[in-house]
Amino acid sequence: MAKNHGAAGLLIASLLVAVTLADARVAVQVRRDLNEAAADHVVPASDAKAAAALTCSKVQGLKAGETCFSVALLGGLTLESFLVFNPNIDCGKTFVGQWVCLHASTA
Protein backbone atom coordinates (compact mmCIF):
# COMPACT_ATOMS: atom_id res chain seq x y z
CA MET A 1 0.00 0.00 0.00
CA ALA A 2 2.89 2.37 0.79
CA LYS A 3 4.23 1.87 -2.73
CA ASN A 4 0.93 3.09 -4.18
CA HIS A 5 1.01 6.25 -2.03
CA GLY A 6 4.53 7.03 -3.21
CA ALA A 7 3.57 6.52 -6.85
CA ALA A 8 0.45 8.65 -6.42
CA GLY A 9 2.48 11.42 -4.79
CA LEU A 10 5.01 11.33 -7.62
CA LEU A 11 2.22 11.44 -10.21
CA ILE A 12 0.57 14.42 -8.51
CA ALA A 13 3.88 16.27 -8.26
CA SER A 14 4.59 15.60 -11.95
CA LEU A 15 1.16 16.88 -12.95
CA LEU A 16 1.61 20.06 -10.89
CA VAL A 17 4.96 20.73 -12.57
CA ALA A 18 3.45 20.13 -16.02
CA VAL A 19 0.53 22.48 -15.33
CA THR A 20 2.87 25.16 -13.95
CA LEU A 21 5.12 24.98 -17.02
CA ALA A 22 2.16 25.11 -19.40
CA ASP A 23 0.71 28.11 -17.54
CA ALA A 24 4.07 29.92 -17.63
CA ARG A 25 4.37 29.29 -21.37
CA VAL A 26 0.97 30.94 -21.97
CA ALA A 27 1.95 34.01 -19.89
CA VAL A 28 5.22 34.40 -21.80
CA GLN A 29 3.37 34.20 -25.13
CA VAL A 30 0.84 36.83 -24.01
CA ARG A 31 3.65 39.17 -22.92
CA ARG A 32 5.44 38.63 -26.23
CA ASP A 33 2.25 39.43 -28.15
CA LEU A 34 1.70 42.59 -26.09
CA ASN A 35 5.30 43.72 -26.64
CA GLU A 36 5.01 43.15 -30.39
CA ALA A 37 1.74 45.11 -30.49
CA ALA A 38 3.31 47.96 -28.52
CA ALA A 39 6.29 48.01 -30.89
CA ASP A 40 3.89 48.88 -33.72
CA HIS A 41 2.96 52.11 -31.90
CA VAL A 42 6.39 53.47 -31.01
CA VAL A 43 6.90 57.17 -31.64
CA PRO A 44 10.28 57.80 -33.27
CA ALA A 45 12.63 59.90 -31.15
CA SER A 46 12.73 62.58 -33.83
CA ASP A 47 8.94 63.05 -33.53
CA ALA A 48 8.85 63.09 -29.72
CA LYS A 49 8.81 66.44 -27.98
CA ALA A 50 10.96 66.64 -24.89
CA ALA A 51 9.31 68.14 -21.84
CA ALA A 52 10.93 71.38 -20.78
CA ALA A 53 12.91 71.06 -17.57
CA LEU A 54 11.39 73.10 -14.77
CA THR A 55 13.35 74.87 -12.06
CA CYS A 56 11.49 75.33 -8.80
CA SER A 57 11.76 78.84 -7.37
CA LYS A 58 9.34 78.63 -4.42
CA VAL A 59 9.05 75.69 -2.04
CA GLN A 60 7.03 75.00 1.07
CA GLY A 61 7.05 72.26 3.68
CA LEU A 62 3.68 70.59 4.20
CA LYS A 63 1.97 71.14 7.54
CA ALA A 64 -0.39 68.82 9.40
CA GLY A 65 -3.74 68.49 7.64
CA GLU A 66 -2.58 69.97 4.33
CA THR A 67 -3.34 68.17 1.10
CA CYS A 68 -2.10 68.66 -2.45
CA PHE A 69 -5.34 70.46 -3.27
CA SER A 70 -5.29 72.76 -0.23
CA VAL A 71 -1.64 73.74 -0.76
CA ALA A 72 -2.25 74.34 -4.46
CA LEU A 73 -5.27 76.51 -3.65
CA LEU A 74 -3.40 78.54 -1.03
CA GLY A 75 -0.51 78.97 -3.46
CA GLY A 76 -2.84 80.29 -6.17
CA LEU A 77 -2.38 77.21 -8.36
CA THR A 78 -4.72 74.77 -9.97
CA LEU A 79 -4.22 71.18 -8.89
CA GLU A 80 -3.04 70.42 -12.44
CA SER A 81 -0.28 73.07 -12.23
CA PHE A 82 0.70 71.86 -8.77
CA LEU A 83 1.11 68.32 -10.10
CA VAL A 84 3.17 69.56 -13.07
CA PHE A 85 5.50 71.34 -10.63
CA ASN A 86 5.62 68.23 -8.41
CA PRO A 87 5.61 65.24 -10.80
CA ASN A 88 6.98 62.75 -8.26
CA ILE A 89 4.55 63.51 -5.44
CA ASP A 90 1.97 60.92 -4.42
CA CYS A 91 -0.91 63.01 -3.08
CA GLY A 92 -2.25 60.01 -1.17
CA LYS A 93 1.01 59.61 0.79
CA THR A 94 2.16 63.10 1.71
CA PHE A 95 3.73 63.78 5.10
CA VAL A 96 4.40 66.72 7.40
CA GLY A 97 7.58 68.50 6.35
CA GLN A 98 7.53 67.18 2.78
CA TRP A 99 8.84 69.86 0.42
CA VAL A 100 6.58 70.81 -2.47
CA CYS A 101 7.16 73.27 -5.29
CA LEU A 102 4.73 76.19 -5.60
CA HIS A 103 6.37 78.08 -8.46
CA ALA A 104 8.56 76.83 -11.28
CA SER A 105 9.81 78.09 -14.60
CA THR A 106 11.82 76.73 -17.50
CA ALA A 107 15.55 76.97 -17.06
From TrEMBL:
SUPFAM superfamilies in the record: LysM domain
Methyltransferase among keywords: no
Keywords on record: Chitin-binding, Virulence
GO molecular function, one term: chitin binding
InterPro entries, alphabetized: LysM, LysM1-like, LysM_dom_sf
Name this protein carries in UniProt: Uncharacterized protein
Originating organism: Aegilops tauschii (Tausch's goatgrass)
